[in-house]
Amino acid sequence: MRVIEITEDRGLAPADRDAPRTGGTDVAVDVAFCGVCGSDLHMLEDPSFPTRSVLGHELSGVVRAVGPQVTAVSVGDAVAVLPYESCGTCRSCTTGRENLCASGGHLGSVIGVQRPGGLASTVVADETSVVPLPAGATLEQGALAEPVAVACRAAGKVAGDLDDLVVVVGAGPIGVLVALVLRAQGRRNVHVLEVNGGRRDRAASLGLPVLEPEEGTDAALRERDVATFVDCTGSPGAVALQLGAVRRGGRVVLVGLGPPVQLDAESAILREVEIVGSAGYSRRDFQTAVQLLASGAVPADELITRIAPVAEAASVFADLRDPATPHIKVLLRHDHRGGTTND
């Protein structure tokens, strides 16, 4: 099979590998679309991340083959692939928090991280990690299920009344998706704060209320009585701003990864600020994401700002490194399968 792998000089180049085999509960999926994530860019640039790795943890495709014990899907099914596996028996798994699985989860053996991902023409996943797409859903929508699941997890951490002011900080792919999921949940007062003008315009084009940079100062935010901030930047400065500006008894949901943040513990204690982490997603979050995309509540067509052949992966990654990029989500397309509908 054909793959795009990380080279010694931290580039991307095509290579040929043996096609994966299936046994037991394995499902082989011919990848249709693979989304490019910010973490893919980081892994490519990180010299400690192994060369010859095959990136891509946001993917959809069509079932090519199944192991003899598979009952959940059949050859020819259109599916989205949940990239991690979990044990199913630990405390986290049995309480619906598979993302925190003691032996797997989002820190375990992940497709596109420890295992070959969507930059390969075919991937293998356990049948528990393969989610059939509903009738009428497209493979393009399926490729967004993984980042939308991240957004579903984060949105689920937002508490309070539906009219409370929620400010999502950062209008990159995850920030925009969090705001859209919150809107789909019926929240009526969700705003986005973003310094990148192109991304700010893109968020506004999706009907999301956007705060201008001058509205994102500490004083201006304090006046707005923000009930919850959702940080999708990972910026220590942005997180510190949110911790100081959220109202008394408010909440800051941390989604974006970044350098360590200095915490003013005294202020957080005296104002009873709740600090909540949101890591990855559960299987329920992933299934919810598929349904939101299939229903159009999260508009995939408006979020996908470019589709390119997988052979152009190197140039796509280079373009996305530009901090000024206006793109929300770029998909890489494998030639053996286009954007068909699951009818």
Automatic annotation (TrEMBL):
Instruction: Write out the biased-composition intervals (Basic and acidic residues).
Output: 1-20
Listed cofactors: Zn(2+)
InterPro entries for the chain:
ADH-like_C, ADH-like_N, ADH_Zn_CS, GroES-like_sf, NAD(P)-bd_dom_sf
Which Pfam families does UniProt cross-reference here? ADH_N (PF08240), ADH_zinc_N (PF00107)
Q: Does the keyword Oxidoreductase apply?
A: yes
- The segment annotated Disordered runs over 1-22
Query: What keywords are assigned to this protein?
Result: Metal-binding, Oxidoreductase, Zinc
- Per the database record, which ranges form the Alcohol dehydrogenase-like N-terminal domain? 25-134
Q: Where does the Alcohol dehydrogenase-like C-terminal domain lie?
A: 173-294
Q: Family, per the entry?
A: Belongs to the zinc-containing alcohol dehydrogenase family.
Q: What is this protein called?
A: Alcohol dehydrogenase catalytic domain-containing protein
